Amino acid sequence: MNTNTVKKSLKDSVITRWAMLLLVGFVLAANYYFYDALSPLKSTLTKEFGFSNTDFGLFLSVYSIPNVFLLMAVFGGIILDKLGIRRTGFMFVAFMAFGALVTAYGASDMYSNNGVGYAFMSSIFPGYSPELKMMLLGRFLFGLGAETSIVVISKIIVKWFKGKELALAFGVKLGLARIGSALAFYLSPILIKSETGWTTAIWFAAFFVTSSLLVFIIYMMFDLKLDKQVKPDNSVSESNEFHISDITDLLKNRSFIYVTLLCLTFYSAVFPFFSFSADFFLNKFNLTLEQSGKISLLMPLGTVIFTPLFGFLVDKYGKAATLMIYGSLILTMVHLAFAFTTLSPYVLMVVLGIAFSLVPASMWPSVAKMVDEKRIGTAYGFMFSVQNLGLWAFPLLTGVILDYTNVEGVKPIDYTYSMVMFASLGILGFIFALLLKREDKLSGYGLNLPSNSK
Ligand SMILES: NCCCC[C@H](N)C(=O)NCC(=O)O
């Protein structure tokens, strides 16, 4: 382990380690802001560029292509365990910023007025608009950087908080990420009305991500200082070598497999739903874009409170495996209620926020109990790649289901079948959570024990 300190180091100072969390939390908030910033703009993209439901789903899902099909999150995790936090983090946050700028450029007048790349994009795949293609390229690059940078930030949290308030720190980190999402749903509908044109909403998001690169550079200075204080032991350089057995060992670990499958199904029922949620409320409850955006942001806002709270409880009392079961069950019930009832979407989104706090607050710190810290980047990277299979397939499938079950141009759009799909994913997540808890009794990782007892 990389923690054989004799003297006190930076991470022993409560203020410094929480300040580090705020720095990387800013990077994460920018990442989540950009991911969600275009979701409230679905109808605007249809109006401006003729996006169909499927085009919009394609735009959302292209984020995951580098992580699923090029295994970027896995390679990113391996690169991270080998090259370390600073170099890997800088590289992938820079990718994220570049991708965000390319997306904004693709939606801009500068590009549509025969800007760089317009002629080329017009010449390939003529069935799709040049704007969509440039925006797809941007989101692809953004996704390539964004997922690995989340892996890097997860490793940063483990580095500063393991053996201390780990689950609480993960909870706060996720809370900061969700503030990014909530801000996106709040600000984007306002920014599209700005005098500088509707694309201000996308440019603002792109500059937010770019500013996070500067914040990451500040973090790097503290990281360097900590590494100088906490000298690695002699075995580290050898153990930093990646071996294929690092992956095969993970695949032989049943607890890890169940938690990965839970991650896939649970998140597939949340993020793709969330991306369509503003449009769903608008259609189901006949609301304005601003009203529906405000309902959507109740879920991330709820998680800002609940995720750190549940993280604190997991640190203190344990029960992570049990809470993952409850979280999956609540998620399923909320989606069924969305599909078949007209219960208040305000209440349901808050309840969804509780489910979306229970599982992440328990899941991510639990992985640190199953996997050695030196391999945590590889483990999170692997989970993210598998999860991205869902983040790729389900937005696309939602768009296809919507186009298939609705008549083009006829409003309101009916989301019932898509909601049933999300509820089914919730049921699968519930089953994997049960299996994980059963397996924990055999493996002895102690997922239901408090954080400092392992
Ligand atoms: N920004 C939306 C996609 C993030 C996915 C990421 N791989 C993840 O799972 N993050 C953890 C979380 O709970 O947000």
Kindly summarize this structure in a few lines.
This protein is 78% helix and 0% strand. The chain is an all-alpha fold. It has one domain: MFS general substrate transporter like domains (Growth Hormone, Chain: A), CATH 1.20.1250.20.
Can you put this structure into words, describing what you see?
The structure is a single chain. With 454 residues, this protein is mainly alpha-helical. It is 78% helix and 0% strand. Helix 1 packs antiparallel against helix 11 (200-229) and helix 5 (72-83) runs antiparallel to helix 6 (85-107). The longest helix is centred in the first third of the chain and has 32 residues, at 130-161. It has helices spanning 14-37, 42-49, 53-61, 65-68, 72-83, 85-107, 109-112, 118-123, 130-161, 166-191, 200-229, 236-239, 244-252, 254-284, 289-296, 298-317, 320-340, 345-370, 376-405, 416-443. It contains 20 helices and no strands. It has one domain: MFS general substrate transporter like domains (Growth Hormone, Chain: A, Up-down Bundle), CATH 1.20.1250. The structure holds ligand LYPLPQDE.
Could you outline the blueprint of secondary structure elements for this entry?
Blueprint: H1 14-37, H2 42-49, H3 53-61, H4 65-68, H5 72-83, H6 85-107, H7 109-112, H8 118-123, H9 130-161, H10 166-191, H11 200-229, H12 236-239, H13 244-252, H14 254-284, H15 289-296, H16 298-317, H17 320-340, H18 345-370, H19 376-405, H20 416-443
Helix pairs in contact: 1-9, 1-10, 1-11, 3-9, 3-19, 5-6, 5-9, 5-19, 6-9, 6-11, 9-10, 9-19, 10-11, 10-15, 10-16, 10-18, 14-15, 14-18, 14-19, 14-20, 16-18, 17-18, 17-20
The protein binds the ligand NCCCC[C@H](N)C(=O)NCC(=O)O.
